[in-house]
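REQUEST FORM: STRUCTURE PREDICTION
Request ID: SP-0412
Submitted by: Lab K.M.
Chain count: 1
Length (residues): 433
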Amino acid sequence: MKKTTPAGSFLSFPGNFWTAISMEFFERGSYYGVMSVLSVYLVLSKSEGGLGFSKESVGVIKSTITPLLYFLPILSGAIGDRFGYRKVLVFAFFTMSLGYWFAGFATTYAAVFSSLILVALGAGFFKPMISGTIARVTDASNSSLGFGIYYWSINLGAFLFPLILVPWLISVSYHYIFFMAAIGTGWLLILNFFVYREPARLQAAKSMKLVFAEMITVLRDFRFILMIVIYSGFWIMYFQVYDSVLWYLKEKVDMSGFNSLVNTVLALFVENPTWKFDAEHVTVMNAAAIILLQLLVSSLVRNTKALPTMIFGICLGSLGMGMLAVSPSGWIFLASMFIFTLGEMIAHPKFIAYVGLIAPDDKKALYQGWSFMYGVIGSGVGGVLGAALYVQFVEKMNQPSLLWLTFSMIGVATVIGLLLFNRFLVKNSEVVR
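STATUS: Completed
RESULT:
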């Protein structure tokens, strides 16, 4: 009697699924490995191993490359459907690897900026190829588990690379983090050539003319665009975790108490441990919390209404950001980052569900794709704003509390904006479901 693979089990996925998951793990690990310390590296003095750029100039870099990373998938997904995923992945891996490699050698502002644009260009073309592959090699019986594994692979990379590789590479030189990322993405060309298989086409590819026509359709929907703009306020806060929060940690926060506790535990296993909490561990904390708690959090709020749950999550995020204003204590810093991440885990999945509620019935997939504009706006504003406010409130006025209260108030404004949006612009039938 022929054995059948249980639907929805790990064995139900074809080899191409696991190839795509492996690609996602290494690409995201490389990306978050770099991003966990990039803003710190760029502003550190040359004597400390950095490049000595001003925080304002770093804000301009981050407000350019991150929006590019969020915007490009809207176009690159259509390009992949038209010309084939393998061809686009060759371009993506080559461009990313080249960008990281150049960044490892770059010492001037223009060279670093250009290198990181290459990275963002490659990453922007990479992202929809993997999610598209997973969508094409799964079905109704295993797609939920498949995308759950996909989400875990992202956070597993964001957890392991900054935790294990980044501290070791920093001990040699910051430059080696970029070389690590170049290798971590470059070797995927081999996987793409010899292991990855082009998924079967499920439908006719969209022409670029149709893609741009759909773009105009979405941009004309004032209600949808306004909702995205309002929600972007939360992501202005979020992107501080990769910029101003890291500067604050390095320059103001006292982590000695936490370091002492960790080293006391480590002393049970190794002699004279000297571990210390550093910038890269902020990314590690975020990823670890999501890996451990996202499924639990999602199950707790699965039957709650989208908008109130979103608002509760954003309130938690605002609380977490505001807690940084209380004291430069390491314990408060850790608690604030955990609460902020918890808010993210609650708010963002419900945002995706909310978009599904307010989108027209015949354009839900299109609107879900364009909903990623929250990242374009949030990172575009957040990078420049965070740098400018950090210099003004922390460096010039020595009042870091004002910085975190300002960002916390952006979160409060986001909540108020969503309440008003729901009150005046959303039909009752869209929120009762």
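NOTES: The chain has a mean pLDDT of 91.
Reviewed by: T.R.
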